[in-house]
Specification:
Elements: E1 2-6, H1 10-22, E2 26-30, H2 33-38, E3 47-51, H3 59-68, E4 75-79, H4 84-93, E5 97-100, H5 105-119, E6 126-129, E7 132-135, E8 140-143, E9 146-148, H6 152-163, E10 169-170, H7 171-179, H8 189-201, E11 210-213, E12 217-220
Parallel strand pairs: 1-2, 1-3, 3-4, 4-5
Antiparallel strand pairs: 6-7, 7-8, 8-9, 10-12, 11-12
Helix pairs in contact: 1-5, 6-8
Length: about 220
Amino acid sequence: MHLAIIEDDQVVARAVQTAAVEAGHTCTLVPDGEIALRDNVLLSCDLAVLDVMLPKLSGVDLLRQARRAGIRTPVVMLTALGTVPDKLDGFEAGADDYLVKPFEMDELMARVEAVHRRTSNRPPAELVAGDLRLMLATKRLSVGDRSIDLTPTEFSILELLMRYRGQVVTRKMLCEHVWGFNWDGPTNVIEVHINRLRGKLDRDRLDSLIQTIRGRGYALAVA
């Protein structure tokens, strides 16, 4: 399992990393909430250990934004704030478990394993952006009242655009997501699939939902 340890206290972060590695996991250390948001850390790990009181962007706000974006990565929150209202804030933001500092490392690892087991069979989520609704389990798309068939490649491209809506998705990101890190196909293949996807999404629209960001990539233009 790959863990993201989002914690500004480097002593705590290193201790959690050591325990996780000894338990057979790999780790990414992230020191603040803005970096975690910028790098989409919750999208690229199997489980996150997330501190509440992060600099720049709190763990609760980070988790709220991730859940609104449809990211369902399981999260164990860490905090020195142990009152019932504090815990409720964490759970309402989308935390799967909550551990108050100071804690025993064995307990944290046990909770990590328990949350991972409990969430591994969680039904796939839907991604929603504006009037777009992408069903991850059935790979079906609805736009308002319309149901749209997507090819596997179109589905993968739209999934990434919806997960990163409001942000630029580079061609490199799309290639790696759709074809893997060793993809070396023709350079115009992304444009071909994007244009086909636009043809399905943009019926009765004046402007395309998928914007081309010149020299950078694409962005999904929905609220």
